[in-house]
Give the backbone structure.
Amino acid sequence: MQKRAVRIMADLNPQDSCRDAFKNLGILTVVSIYITEVILLAIRQNCLRNRDIHERQTRHGNDFNLPAHRSALFAKKPTYAGARLYNMLPGELKNLGPQVLKRKMLK
């Protein structure tokens, strides 16, 4: 649906790629918006981090602790998905505050 709207706005044919049109129009895809929002949700929720569990400083102390689970439903929770995606970010982005991180991710 979003691609169709961008193709109309950019006057593209149905078979044309709309990747450049997204960039030129400054529009984020639905997937990009979801990833950004769940990462920010995990930060705002103050989920448990590895540094809260270990008394010593560890290499991944800034990462969120991902609890073991048995169901796919748990893995689909926005807080769990956000924590998992946050752990995949490069180290220099993890040290930023939520507002600065959001600006960097949206660039």
Notes: The longest helix spans residues 30-44. The chain has one domain: 32-106. The chain has eight helices and no strands. The helical segments are 2-10, 19-25, 30-44, 50-53, 72-75, 78-88, 91-94, 98-106.
